Every structure is written in C-alpha cells, then in structure tokens.
Amino acid sequence: MTPPLPSTGRARRAPARVFSCVLLALGVFGFAAAWVLVALSSGRLGSWMAILGAIDIVIVLRLGGWRPGPARALLAAVATACIAILAIWWIIAAHLGAMLGLTPWGSAIRLGFHHAWTLAGIAIGPIDLLWMAAAVVLAAVASR
C-alpha cells in the first residue's frame, strides 16, 4: 500500500478561487439588473444606485475570501465600474427596445457601441457622473 500524497494548499484553493470569481460575477450582474429595475420603474437613471453597488461589491469580495490590499481595492473599483456600465447599457437597451418592439435582452445585443455612447452622453449628467465616480472611489477605499 502506498502512503497518501501530501496535501498542498494550492489544490484546495483552486475551487475556492473559482467560487469567489463566480460570486463576484453574480454580484456584478445581479446588482446591475437590480439597478435597471429601479431605473425602469422610476423613469430616472438612478445613478445613486452606484453607491449601493459599491457597498455590495465590497461585501461580495469579503464573503468571497479575497485578501485585503491593493489588488482587492482595484478589483472592487473595476467591478463597481462594470456595474455602472452594464446598468447604463441595459437601461438604454430597454428604452430602445420598448420603442422598437424588442425585448431588453434582444435590444442589448443589437445595441452598437457608438449609438450607446451617444445616448449615454445625452442621458448622463454631471451629477450622475459624480455619483458613479464616488462609488468607484468608495469601493476602492472600503475594500482595502
């Protein structure tokens, strides 16, 4: 009978890292979807939701076991920015889809970058940009 091989921490960490990445992706997509629902039900952009998204990402990163430090702060800032970009994209797509008789998902797939950029430039004001920038900074600072 052969002795068992020594266990390394790396083998046990691989599934945990995959779980953490999946949890982060679910957090980003799930919160962006919640933001879209708030925006569509209120008829406004709801850029204040970016702050709640930053708090959500900080909690998700802590629950996912990401170590504190500059890497987690950068990841939190990027994830918060992704929430804002996804939410704005879906809000624009939902409004266009409603006018063209498409579902929001069908419209989001067909929406071109330049068209979305133009419509976002019209819809997003300085206060909205301030909310989103504050959220990115909050996520980076709170996750350190």
TrEMBL record:
The chain crosses the membrane at residues 21-40, 46-66, 73-96, 116-142. Keywords: Membrane, Transmembrane, Transmembrane helix. It comes from the Bacteria. The keyword Transmembrane applies. This is Transmembrane protein. It comes from Novilysobacter ciconiae.
